[in-house]
Design a protein that fits this description.
This protein is α+β, with helices and mostly antiparallel strands and 255 residues long. It contains 6 helices and 12 strands. The longest helix is centred in the middle third of the chain and has 16 residues.
Length: 255
């Protein structure tokens, strides 16, 4: 069994309103890939957010008293902090140049996933533009899956990923924030190991393992490879949602 990840070539810079499904289909053709049942497309959240118009210019944001208070602590732009607050359920940790939140989608991350890098807007200063995560990444993934099926009549999975830091470890890794037709977690409990012992605890974060692999192919700077075709995923495709991946708060021993 082989797992093959192929970055899609000739992928354009995305602008708000672009038909992302159509661009993916064209890029698959340019990369000489004929999609097949069971394939997966892994997409950087940035292209999904841009296509959905999730750009915000900081000059249009009026910071609240809470944002100004956090600005004194973190030394971050209070306008950016206001957006972070709007995208979050709760602020968990703060420090110099650092704010860790529970995002409204349920996961823990820095800056509510709001990004400055590789972002430009139609007017004003480039440094004033930021990009928010998709409003509903699961729904975004489902739409793309359905649009590609309507074109090809092929059943594929779609995963939308972002780069997150991790508690206790340095460096960011790719993690899943939205998915359609891809198992978030594969439950191996009850499956025998090499010596016949039946596993009792093992649940594999399959979607996040794939996200990390695809993130290696995408790069983090100027590589320009925001979409990766995957063939040979070792688990059966099935419907799933982000909630499958997020540990319930009552079971979270690290918060």
């Amino acid at each position: 069994m082989s797992l093959v990840l192929t970055p899609l070539s000739n992928f354009p810079l995305i602008e708000p309103g672009d038909d992302l499904a159509e661009l993916l289909i064209h890029s698959l053709e340019a990369t000489d890939i004929q999609i097949a049942d069971g394939d997966i497309l892994v997409l950087a959240q940035k292209i999904v957010s841009k296509a959905e118009g999730r750009l915000v210019n900081l000059s249009t944001v009026e910071p609240s008293a809470r944002a100004n208070e956090l600005g004194e602590i973190t030394k971050k732009d209070a306008r950016l902090l206001e957006l972070i607050l709007r995208e979050s359920r709760a602020v968990l940790r703060t420090g110099l140049n650092t704010i860790i939140v529970e995002h409204r989608l349920g996961f823990i991350c820095a800056n509510a996933g709001i990004d400055h890098s590789n972002v430009r807007g139609p007017w004003g200063k480039e440094e004033d533009w930021v990009l928010l995560l998709p409003e509903d990444p699961d729904a975004s993934a489902r739409r793309l899956q359905e649009q590609i099926y309507a074109h090809s009549h092929i059943h594929i999975g779609v995963s939308i990923i972002d780069s997150h830091g991790r508690a206790w470890r340095n460096g960011t890794v790719g993690v899943t924030i939205g998915l359609a037709g891809v198992p978030g977690v594969v439950d191996m409990r009850g499956v025998p190991d090499l010596f016949g012992f039946r596993l009792r605890i093992t649940q594999i974060g399959a979607a996040d393992e794939l996200a990390a692999a695809a993130s290696l192919m995408m790069g983090q700077a100027a590589e320009g490879s925001p979409a990766v075709h995957v063939r040979g995923f070792p688990y059966a495709l099935r419907n799933s949602t982000l909630t499958e991946i997020i540990r319930p708060k009552e079971q979270d021993l690290f918060r």
